[in-house]
């Protein structure tokens, strides 16, 4: 699976590199990069909301069918399929719209976490050899998650660039490119290559894991409000994970280079803004009301197509009756 996500990360890395090429600031590049990708994925999010609305709209009818055919599973499935076809709802329609954004989001993470191979697109074997060499140097041995070793290599690269091993691995052009890239990690006085844990809990860098936690929880709370029906159906263990994950994310952000935590903050904040837009214009309730209005309009249109046939039979009968009445009066 890592190879698949790495492949997506390598593709998305070109977008990140393009942003860095113009901005020369890795932090701002992450912001622009995340916004662009979120805009690309926005139609999938809207489609997912629409699919959810369709499922919610059919819940009452589904329940009736389940009660009616409780002892006949085959017949129940047939009637369910007829219901989906009649209402134009695809029960699995939202799966693809969930999988694609997930793959892209993981690809974004791999583009940020592996900047040398996925953003600069340097040879992976060469980069891995440089990381292995770095770990043999006293004082540079990585004690954090091995996932972020490339970011650590960028941080220490200016100090080990002139060693015989590094000179043998990278060309002069590659070394200069890495140095220029490393300089782009300084954003408004913050070095995104710094690990907050190394600076102490009372340093300004500790704000990064705190903001990771706050932004993550805020985004999830908004999503809860948007998808109340869906969240109500979640099992207790999933609800616990909803609150445990932000704490886990904050801990990881405290022990890895600040660039990773900064990416998570940007992603959560942009997801939060996207959630507000969805809550305003693209909620399941909105789609349900829109679909019901469309259904009523379609029924009226179909009724209008039925030709009106004038039948005076009833009127003739009534006239004869009136005529008979007049004769009786005479």
From TrEMBL:
Would I find GTP-binding among this entry's keywords? no
Give the UniProt keywords, A-Z.
Answer: Cell membrane, Chaperone, Membrane, Protein transport, Transmembrane, Transmembrane helix, Transport
Could you tell me where this protein is found in the cell? Cell membrane; Membrane
Q: Which Pfam families match?
A: 60KD_IMP
User: How does the record classify its membrane topology?
Assistant: Multi-pass membrane protein
The molecule here is called YidC/Oxa1 family membrane protein insertase
- Where the record annotates domain Membrane insertase YidC/Oxa/ALB C-terminal, the positions are 26-279
**Where exactly are the transmembrane stretches of this chain?**
5-22, 28-46, 92-113, 201-219, 240-256, 262-282
Q: Does the keyword Translocase apply?
A: no
Q: Which family does it belong to?
A: Belongs to the OXA1/ALB3/YidC family.
Query: Could you tell me which species this protein originates from?
Result: Ruminococcus bromii
């Amino acid at each position: 699976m890592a190879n698949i996500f790495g492949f997506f990360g390598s593709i998305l890395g070109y977008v990140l590199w393009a942003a860095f090429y113009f901005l020369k600031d890795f932090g701002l590049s992450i912001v622009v990069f995340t916004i662009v990708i979120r805009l690309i994925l926005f139609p999938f999010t809207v489609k997912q909301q629409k699919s959810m609305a369709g499922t919610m709209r059919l819940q009452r009818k589904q329940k009736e069918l389940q009660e009616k055919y409780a002892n006949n599973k085959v017949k129940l499935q047939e009637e369910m399929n007829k219901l989906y076809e009649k209402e134009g709802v695809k029960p699995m329609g939202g799966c693809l719209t969930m999988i694609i954004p997930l793959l892209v989001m993981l690809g974004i993470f791999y583009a940020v976490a592996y900047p040398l191979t996925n953003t600069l697109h340097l040879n992976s074997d060469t980069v891995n050899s440089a990381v292995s060499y770095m770990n043999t140097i006293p004082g540079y041995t990585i004690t954090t998650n091995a996932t972020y070793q490339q970011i650590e290599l960028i941080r220490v690269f200016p100090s080990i660039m002139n060693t015989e091993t590094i000179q043998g691995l990278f060309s002069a052009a590659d070394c200069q490119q890495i140095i220029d890239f490393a300089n782009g990690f300084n954003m408004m006085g913050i070095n995104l290559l710094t690990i907050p844990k190394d600076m102490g809990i009372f340093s300004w860098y500790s704000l990064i894991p705190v903001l990771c936690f706050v932004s993550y929880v805020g985004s999830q709370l908004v999503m809860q409000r948007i998808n109340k029906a869906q969240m109500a159906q979640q099992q207790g263990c999933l609800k616990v994970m909803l609150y445990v994950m932000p704490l886990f994310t904050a801990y990881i952000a405290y022990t890895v280079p600040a660039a990773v935590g900064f990416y998570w903050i940007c992603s959560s904040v942009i997801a939060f803004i996207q959630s507000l837009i969805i809550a305003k214009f693209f909620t399941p309730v909105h789609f349900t009301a829109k679909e019901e209005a469309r259904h009523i309009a379609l029924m009226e249109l179909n009724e209008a197509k039925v030709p009106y046939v004038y039948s005076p039979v009833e009127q003739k009968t009534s006239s004869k009756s009136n005529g008979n009445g007049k004769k009786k009066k005479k």
